[in-house]
From TrEMBL:
Keywords: Repeat
Residue ranges of domain Clp R in the record: 2-184
Top-rank lineage group of the source organism: Bacteria
Pfam family, one: Clp_N
Record's protein name: Peptidase
InterPro entries documented for this protein: Clp_N_dom_sf, Clp_R_N
Alphabetized Gene3D superfamilies for the sequence: Clp, N-terminal domain
Residue span of region Disordered: 104-123
Keyword Repeat in record: yes
Length: 184
């Protein structure tokens, strides 16, 4: 499948691996794919992100991702459902971090030793890449571009899609922006 990726999409995948390595993560996740997309400057996805989430709003987006990571990747909807059952996720996170340190629920087992070979992709990250292929095929595009990765991230649900949507980056807004129609 990787041979069908454009140069820009390949750069996103490589960038995601670099983000995972820098962060000491044992696997490449959806979050790493988003961070790599945010690093891009000259691509279709970069243009859409620049339009929908200007650079002055990016720190807020990154902070929301970090907050979700602290909650062990639970989406806000998950936290609200648990709250309806009388479970306060914020209190649990605080208690765990009090005992085990900040970020204890981040879900990333940190890489403490040297690794040989490549970082594996999480099941969710693989699903995003597979969905980007399906998006490209549905649009009758010959190659998978970074815009297909962005569309897949926004359409899959979960924490990354939720954080993007909170910042005005939804499947519909990305699709509209990519097609050149006015957003609103």
């Amino acid at each position: 499948m990787f041979e069908r990726f454009t140069k820009s999409a390949r750069a996103v995948v490589k960038g995601a691996v670099e983000h995972a390595e820098r962060g000491g993560a044992t696997a490449v996740t959806e979050e790493h794919l988003l961070l790599a997309l945010l690093d891009r400057e000259e691509s279709r996805a970069a243009g859409a992100l620049r339009t929908l989430c200007p650079s002055d709003r990016r720190p807020s987006l990154a902070a929301d991702l970090a907050d979700a990571r602290r909650r062990a990747g639970l989406s806000r909807a998950d936290a609200e459902a648990l709250a309806d059952l009388g479970i306060d996720v914020g209190a649990i996170v605080a208690r765990v971090e009090e005992t085990h340190g900040a970020g204890a629920l981040a879900g990333d087992r940190r890489d403490t030793g040297r690794r040989s070979g490549r970082r594996p992709f999480s099941r969710e990250a693989k699903n995003i890449l597979e969905k980007s292929l399906r998006m490209a095929l549905a649009r009758k595009d010959r190659e998978i571009g970074d815009e297909h990765i962005l569309l897949a991230l926004t359409s899959t649900g979960g924490v990354v899609a939720e954080v993007l949507a909170d910042h005005g980056v939804s499947y519909a807004s990305v699709d509209t922006t990519l097609s050149g129609a006015p957003t609103g």
